[in-house]
Design brief:
With 110 residues, this protein is of the alpha+beta class. The chain is 37% helix and 35% strand.
Length: 110
Amino acid sequence: MEARAISRYNRISPQKVRLVGSNVQGKPLEDAINILNYTPKKAARLIKKVLSSALANAQQNYSLDLDSLYVKQILVDEGPTLKRIKPRAMGRANRIFKRTSHVTVIVDEL
């Protein structure tokens, strides 16, 4: 039985989260948490938070054994993009895209 947790509308680009998420996908739970602890990126803190929520869901809702869990899948989807403008020289303006992401972590038993 698999357990999942979802975090939505995170103010970080999906591309940056996917880089960190691919490092821990398929790893046992303890290894994944150690990797995220020593990864100096904002996305690592975000994924660790969602992973701990998925663990709590597995324990509380499905009574799964925490020692036999592994990270089955990490899905990172693009959320709505905030569009801003940056004034430039001679009356021009450039668009700034502030991207958001939705992160889904699925854990399962071995």
